[in-house]
């Protein structure tokens, strides 16, 4: 390996908080909590491996944020009360004991919820049938339910739930920062997406309206936590149920979305694409991470999507990214940063890790 990896190990600060390198574990749904949403001993061991392996940042899987419509999966962890928040404490303690920066991802599944112990129905921005099929490796079966159009009162409750859960994550569980999940087809992204949001009110229509829920959620979380806690947002075009979706107005939409986050004061923006280095829209055009950097120049940009290849990870740092978020590569190599420093070979990703059910396997914990 003759690639200069020095840039991947340069420190960086996020809203005054030191992060030791540019390698992060991406958020990955692993459905290994208890039925009532508490983090488990298995999760403690799973997350600690990444921190022990040298990752500068560890981002959790999506954590549900209210006892209404936010839960998306069986055995998904929550942050809706003190019991759930306290269960995260040892997870966070062990991540931070290795000098890693711990980020909690707040998530509302919306119309693509596959299981929710609090509700038998789902909500979305509009009563529009979600594309695709439920994911079997998360215990899904068949098509998604037809959601009800979420009401203004329920929108307010959703925002309040996100803010309250974010506060528990910081004040009780001990996380360093919050990531708001505005990507991958979940509720906030459903509002952003033209074909899932057919509303005629202030939440629908033009892109400036459809991005409003993301921005209002960010402002509520920021208001709850204050200016010193890092708060960011994850953004994507593709979704778990519509991999190849593109924003209709291309770079103009990118300007509105990333510019809106910049104006709101997002400390970091986490962009994810299937292959992060590829043009976001037209052939030969800029990548999504490049556009995020262009329109949110003060935010720390995290980039995710096939960047476990070291050469592409280094190149991404020259294309707008500040931190590289790694998913499959981290599952295959929980000690990936240490391997890079030691010039060791990387394991290929074994898809059986996520099958037949994507819960955490004992074999992983032995890696």
Structure description:
By secondary structure, the protein is α/β, with parallel strands linked by helices. It has a single domain (about 5-365), classed as Aldolase class I (TIM Barrel). Helices cover about 30% and strands about 15% of the residues. The strands form 3 sheets. It has an 8-stranded parallel barrel, surrounded by 6 helices. The protein has a two-stranded antiparallel sheet with strand order 1-2. Strands 6-7 form a two-stranded parallel sheet. The radius of gyration is 19 Å and the shape is globular. The mean pLDDT is about 95.
Q: Shape, please?
A: globular
- In the predicted model, the low-confidence regions spanning at least 5 consecutive residues are none
CATH architecture: Alpha-Beta Barrel
Could you tell me the number of beta strands? 12
CATH top level is Alpha Beta
Characterize the quaternary organization of these chains. single chain
Give the terminus-to-terminus CA distance.
23 Å
Question: What is the helix content?
Answer: 25-40%
SS-derived structural category: alpha/beta
Which H/E pattern describes the elements?
EEEHEHEEEHEHHHEHEHEHEHHH
Strand content: 5-15%
Radius of gyration: 19 Å
Strand order of the largest sheet: 3-4-5-8-9-10-11-12
CATH fourth-tier homologous superfamily: Aldolase class I
Number of domains: 1
Main β-sheet description: 8 strands, parallel, barrel
CATH-derived topology: TIM Barrel
Number of helices: 12
């Amino acid at each position: 390996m003759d690639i200069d990896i020095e840039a991947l190990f340069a420190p960086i600060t996020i809203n005054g908080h030191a992060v030791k390198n540019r390698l992060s574990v991406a958020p990955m749904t692993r459905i290994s909590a208890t039925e009532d949403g508490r983090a488990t001993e298995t999760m403690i061991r799973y997350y600690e491996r990444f921190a022990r392996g040298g990752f500068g940042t560890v981002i959790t899987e999506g954590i549900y944020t209210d006892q209404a419509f936010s839960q998306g999966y069986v055995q998904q962890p929550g942050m809706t009360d003190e019991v759930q928040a306290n269960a995260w404490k040892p997870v966070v303690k062990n991540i931070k004991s290795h000098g890693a920066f711990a980020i909690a991802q707040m998530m509302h599944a919306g119309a693509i919820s596959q299981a929710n112990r609090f509700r038998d129905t789902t909500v979305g921005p509009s009563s529009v049938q979600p594309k695709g099929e439920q994911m079997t490796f998360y215990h899904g079966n068949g098509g998604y339910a037809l959601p009800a159009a979420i009401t203004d009162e329920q929108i307010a409750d959703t925002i309040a739930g996100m803010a309250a859960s974010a506060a528990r994550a910081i004040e009780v569980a001990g996380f360093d920062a919050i990531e708001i999940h505005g990507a991958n087809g979940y509720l906030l992204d459903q509002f952003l997406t033209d074909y899932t949001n057919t509303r005629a009110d202030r939440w629908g229509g033009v892109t400036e309206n459809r991005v409003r829920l993301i921005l209002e959620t960010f402002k509520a979380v920021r208001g709850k936590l204050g200016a010193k806690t890092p708060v960011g947002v994850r953004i994507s075009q593709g979704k778990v149920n519509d991999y190849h979706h593109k924003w209709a107005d291309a770079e103009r939409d990118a300007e509105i979305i990333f510019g809106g986050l910049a104006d709101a004061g997002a400390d970091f923006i986490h962009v994810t694409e299937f292959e992060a280095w590829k043009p976001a829209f037209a052939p030969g055009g800029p990548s999504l991470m490049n556009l995020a950097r262009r329109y949110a120049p003060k935010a720390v940009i995290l980039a995710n999507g096939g960047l476990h290849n070291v050469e592409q990870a280094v190149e991404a740092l020259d294309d707008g990214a500040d931190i590289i978020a790694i998913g499959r590569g981290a599952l295959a190599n929980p000690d990936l940063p240490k391997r890079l420093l030691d010039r060791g070979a990387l394991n290929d990703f074994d898809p059986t890790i996520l099958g037949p059910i994507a819960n955490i396997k004992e074999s992983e914990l032995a890696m």
